[in-house]
Task: structure prediction
Amino acid sequence: MTDRASPVPSAAALKRAAELRVHRTAFIVMTVILVVAPTVVYPVFMMKVMCFALFACAFNLLIGFGGLLSFGHAMFLGSAGYASAHAAKVWGLTPELAILFGTGCAALLSLGAGLLAIRRQGIYFAMITLALAQMVFFFSLQAKFTGGEDGIQGVPRGKLFGVIALDNQLVMYAFVLVIFLAGFGLIYRAVHSPFGQVLKAIRENESRAISLGYDTDRYKLLAFVLSGTLAGLAGATKALVFQLASLTDVHWSMSGEVVLMTLLGGMGTVFGPVVGAAVIITMQNYLAQLGAWVTVVQGVIFVVCVMAFRRGLIGELGHWLRKPL
Amino acid sequence: MTEIFGIPTQALFGQLLIGLINGSFYALLSLGLAVIFGLLNIINFSHGAQYMMGAFVAYLLLNKLGVGYWWALLIAPIVVGATGVLIERLLLSKLYKLDHLYGLLLTFGLALIIQGLFRNEYGSSGQPYQIPAQLQGGQNLGFMFLPNYRAWIIVASAVVCLGTWYVIERTKLGSYLRAATENPQLVQAFGINVPRMITLTYGFGVALAALAGVMAAPVYQVSPQMGADLIIVVFAVVVIGGMGSILGSIVTGFGLGLIEGLTKVFYPEASSTVIFIIMAIVLLVRPAGLFGAQK
Amino acid sequence: MKLKRNLLSTLVAAACGLGAAAAQAQISDGVIKIGVMNDMSGLYADIAGPGSLTAAKMAVEDFGAAAKGMKVEVVGADHQNKPDVGSTIARTWYDVDKVDAIFDVPTSSVALAVNQITKDKGKAFISSGAATSDLTGKACSPNTIHWTYDTWMLANGTGSAIVKTGGDSWFFLTADYAFGHALERDTTAAVQKAGGKVIGGVRHPFPGQDFSSFLLQAQSSKAKVIGLANAGGDTINSIKQASEFGIVKGGQSLAGMLVFITDVHALGLNTAQGLVFTETFYWDLNDQTRAWSKRFAAANGGKYPSMVQAGVYSSVLHYLKAVEAAKTDDGSKIIAQMKAMPTDDPLFGKGSIRADGRKIHPAYLVEVKKPAESKGPYDYYKIRATIPADQAFRPIDQGDCPLVAKK
Result:
């Protein structure tokens, strides 16, 4: 064995390795919690949390790491939901195919929307996404196949791969868990990769990134498509969990909710959106009997987070622990 | 009877007039928003909620204090404008050094709070508010019956819009305001109290929203939801007109009202969507809006 | 609970007699749990909302559950008019909270979702608030009963009754979504059957805000009747703006397809006078309804009951009677029992429930009074006509309900 002086790891590499350790631990903790949860908490509720957590993570990819605020992300959640519900109910596709179809539709939509939207920055970008989302909303309202305000009801869960019946709550739960972890993992890999680094650079200073020779539009478009596609994955899965697809998922207030979840959890953190989604969904569920107070509480959370709590729950926790979460 | 595209000209004129009336409403509402964004770079998402507050103040003034419509036109904007000043002083001013995003999120949260509180208190069916006696009834114009109140809306909106535009673009006060937002340090060095100007400007924009609310109260039910869906349309108007341009939002407001009116005649189902389609097209072709300046 | 359950079982078994082939005498965990789900804070909070919960509790009290040794619990939840929230609540209620039956559920999309879940789980669903006639049509189920009203009854009642009183030319102002289209379609059929004609119509986006343009078109059509095929805030705004444009003063009349007393209250008599529509309950019909409504108003902050809230009272009462008779709270069995027993309560009088789940009772064509004719708040209606129960609802064989054998 030749005796070669091993290179001293750079500060950046050391930092990255430490970060990886923290993330790995946190990921394991999260997975364990999710696996154990259905024994104590109602499984359908947890599945809802996971779907929205995936939605928020996808949204966070765009805002937290790409610096682009989209005010129309509901269009991906909702249209994928309609597509997969239709595929499962009317065409009789098996669940994994229905979800793939829904996700594919969201991918196409995000490509189209992205091509239109990324040409502008900042508030104009947000406004274009809002306009496009409104158009999707009105289309969903009118189109025959979406069932209008009744939505698509009675969507069958079917048999996974044609064999495994998903009517059993726990089996369905396992399926949704796998989808969530896969989506989460994909986002993580995307962010912690050369692509993610360039994205962060674009967020910090786009002109400099351009001057370094990067085609920033392409990167932004790719981020947008990735974000929209995974939001679609969340929506397609959710349609099968609840066995319905409705207008609520394409309404602009849904776009506002995902912003709230991400902001509360911590924009730009890895685990923030998951926690944010969990908190908001729990709050909506358990405060449901308070009626309109839920809206007020959500508004208060927005205000408090913006004024004093900008890092969000996980961001603050990470800051306190001095570890990147 | 002559026909244009299958619609008798008389009916068409009637629809255009109605479109103009709606347009004057959009113009009045988007004016406040344009003032706030154009001069302060804040996206005021609570504009719809403040519009609703204006209508509710008018309702409460009438039902609790017996104060009528004409006084309400004066009092409601002042009261709601004052709350706007408070919001600016306590909350918004802390966010100026940050990304505009946070101002948007803050005002969005405030809108949720305000709407939720009013919904808790008043339910959602809405409260009745009568058209003031002096403006009831209408004129038969031959091609349509024009309610007097609607005519008043056009006139009042036009006056307020042009007045605001004049003050901001043509008077000394307006020029101080415009300078203060372009270069606050320099203007402050000249001895002008910039933070106070900013506060008053926000208050003024909010007061404009409340004024629109008072004017809306006799025609639409006074309900906590009244601003929620309207705000999105108003944003579209401001964006199309050009986010910094007062004249832009006025012209676009009226123009969009007309286009919407025409859509309601020829293809009514699309009249909600047409504004967003136009907004998307304008943003792609002329990103700064029709009258906006490229920054 | 186990002691009580055994005691109950013993008592009931003794009462039934030994060897009776009747259903197993078992109320699940000894408690009859009733869930009232509706919109507690949004558009329909006044029509149903907390008032429905009050009505349900009144029914439990009046039934005398305590005296009969039956333990009944009432819970409420807000579905926010969202089908996914409603379906989560229904699932949680059935799976975790052991709710036996769900009541009310306005907003047809939520009602359809709850209908499906109830069928899958074999529980019971009695809807007072929903409008869609599909609940006793394509989507009918052995676990669902549709109380109070539905779109067919509204369309038919209002449509044909108005034509009979001279309103034979119609123009529709329709909300452009499935519900509005259904209302327009059903009313058109009723109007044409009664000998009237529909001379035009326009569809407005849903939700709408300003109807002046559409009202202008309605005005220039010179139709005698302008049918408002929309609901909630849209109807209220259309009526308000119609009065602004002097439509009623100009000789045309407005027909609301779905109007509640709370809407009239929100509009004020000045604006709403002359409006004609159909309801199945009015607090001032007779001494019994008056007495009940005053009790209700006292418990509901002075607000008088809508027909939806009255329907909740009536349906809970009948449900409890059926549970008492069948001695079980198994969903399908109770629904069958409810269909087997004729109904009788102070609010809707005597009625019955058909095989497709449709509750039958008379309907009333009402006209809103002028301000001078009203003696106080909520004194709003003149009864113009009564439609007998067997004519008010869609004939049982026309609904495509799979539970009904085709002739």
Remarks:
- Chain C touches chain B at residues 41-43, 45-46, 176, 202-205, 207, 209-210, 212-214, 216-217, 219-220, 233, 236-237, 240-241, 244-246, 250, 262-263, 265-268, 270-271 (CB under 8 Å).
- Chain C is about 40% helix and 20% strand.
